[in-house]
Amino acid sequence: MVLLSRAWRCWRAIALLALVMCLSLAACAKNPVTGQDELVLMSESQEVAMGANYYPQVIQLNHGLTPGDPQLQGYVNRLGRRLARISHRPNLPWQFTVVNSSQVNAFALPGGKISITRGLISKMSSEDELAGVLGHEIGHVTARHAVAGYTRQILMTGALLGLAIALGDNEYAPAALAAAGVAGSLMMLGYSRDQERQCDELGYEYMTRAGYNPVAMVSTFELFKKMQKTEPSEIESWLSSHPLPRERIAAAEKRALASPLSNRPFNTAEFNRRLAKQKRLAPAYAAMDKGNALARKKRWGPAAAMYQRAIAAYPQEGMFHSRLAIAQMQQKQYRQALTSAQKGARLSGGNFYPSFILGLVQRSNRNYRGALAAHHRAARLMPDHVVNNFFLAYSYDKVGQRKNAATYYRKVAKASPKSNYGKASQKRLAQMGLQ
C-alpha cells in the first residue's frame, strides 16, 4: 500500500504538470477562414513543422511517389500551388504529391502537405475534378482542422487527468497519461461532417476562383457513390475519412447550378497528357491488386501468377517484384524469392517496403547479416516502424550482437508494449537478463 500510495502521488504530480502545461500553451487565435477566435494549442510554426516531419513518413506508408513519372508530380504540384495561392493561407510551404497507392484517397497534413493517390487520380477524367479534390484538401489546411483535432484531443486528455485527480483513483491516471501521446496519431484524426461540408464549400470557392467548372465536384462525388456499390474495398479509405451522405452531393449540385462557370467545358487536354502513363499502366496495377486480394486469402500460387502478369506489363515497377517475393517465400521458394526481392529493392531503393521485404526474405534464407543491411535501409526511411525494428533486433540477436539487439528490443517494447512484437521483445529481454 505504501508503494501504491507513492506511485499515485507521482502520477498526480505528473498529471498536474500536464494540466498546467496544457493551460499555459492554450491561446486564442483567429481562424484564417472564419475570422473567429478559437482555442488552439499549436502555433502556425509548430503546425508547419509537424506537417514537414510526418509528410515523408506518410508518403512511405503509401508506397512512395509514383515511379518514373516526374511530369505527373510536377503537374499536380503546380496545380495544387495555383489553388493554394488563392486560398486563405497562401504563404504556407505548400507541397502536393501523387503517392503510389491503389487506394482511392487523398489526405492533408498540417502546414500544407497534401497527397492524392494513384488509385484516385487514375479514375478521374479532367483537371476540373482534380482541382475540386485538391481544393477540398486545401480547405482542411486553411481551416486548421487537424489543429482543431489536436487541441480537442489534448483538452480531452486534460479532462481525464483532472477526473483522475478528483477521484483519487490511480486506475485512471496511467491510461490518461498514455492518451497524451496524441501528436503521433495526428494524421489519423477523422473530420466531422461539419468540417467536410466546410471543405466542400472551400473547395468550390478555390476551384471557381481559379476558373474551373464546379460541376466536376459533383461528378467526383458520383464516381465515389458508384464505386461504393461496385468496388467498395477500393473506396473504403476515402469514405472512412470523408463521409459522403446524400445531402453533401445535393449541396454541391446546388452550388454548381448557381455558378456561371457551370457551362464551361472541362479541362481535359493537359490532364490526359499528364495522366497518359498512369492510364496506360492501369492494367498492370490492376493485376497487382488482384494478386493482393488473392494473397489476403493465402492463395499464394494464383497471387504469384498475377504479380508475374503485372511484371510482364511493367517490369520497372519494383513493388511488383517485392510482392512476388512474398508469394514465393510463402510457397517456400526461397531462392526465387530472394531474386525477386533483390530486384524489387534495387528498382525501388528510395522506398521502405521493398527494403523491408528484402530483409524478411534474407531472414528466411538465414542470411541474417543480409537481413540487417536491408532492415537498416528500411529504418532510414521509417525509423519508428515497430515490425522493422523488431526484425532488426532479431537479426542482431542471431549474429550475436546482444547489445545492439537489446537496443532495438527495448525500442519495440517501449513503442508497442501490448503488441505481439512488444511482448516478444519483453520476453527476449528477460531471457537475456536485460529487461
Name its key features.
three-stranded mixed sheet; 435 residues; mainly alpha; Serine Threonine Protein Phosphatase 5, Tetratricopeptide repeat; 2 domains; disordered N terminus; two-stranded antiparallel sheet
Secondary structure: elements and pairs:
Blueprint lengths: L1 H24 L1 E4 L6 E4 L3 H18 L8 H16 L9 E5 L6 E4 L3 E5 H4 L5 H16 L2 H23 L4 H7 L14 H17 L5 H16 L1 H10 L4 H13 L10 H6 L1 H21 L3 H14 L4 H13 L3 H14 L4 H13 L3 H14 L4 H13 L3 H14 L4 H12 L4
Parallel strand pairs: 3-5
Antiparallel strand pairs: 1-2, 4-5
Morphology call: globular
**N-to-C order of helices and strands:** HEEHHEEEHHHHHHHHHHHHHHHHHH
Question: Radius of gyration, Cα only, in angstroms?
Answer: 24 Å
**Strands, total number:** 5
Low-confidence stretches: 1-8, 13-25, 159-184
Spatial separation of the terminal alpha carbons: 25 Å
* Number of spatially distinct domains: 2
Helix content: 55-70%
Biggest beta-sheet profile = 3 strands, mixed
Strand order of the largest sheet: 3-5-4
Number of helices: 21
Beta strand % = 5-15%
Mean of all residue-level pLDDT scores: 85
Given helix and strand content, the structural type is mainly alpha
Outline of the structure:
This protein is mainly alpha-helical and 435 residues long.
Plain-language structure description:
The chain is mainly α. It has two domains: 1-274, no CATH class; 278-431, Serine Threonine Protein Phosphatase 5, Tetratricopeptide repeat. It has 21 helices and five strands. It has helices at residues 2-25, 44-61, 70-85, 118-121, 127-142, 145-167, 172-178, 193-209, 215-230, 232-241, 246-258, 269-274, 276-296, 300-313, 318-330, 334-347, 352-364, 368-381, 386-398, 402-415, 420-431, and strands at 27-30, 37-40, 95-99, 106-109, 113-117. It has a three-stranded mixed beta sheet. The protein has a two-stranded antiparallel sheet with strand order 1-2. A hairpin with a 3-residue loop joins strand 4 and strand 5 (113-117). The chain is globular and about 70 Å long. The model is unreliable at 1-8, 13-25 and 159-184 (pLDDT under 50).
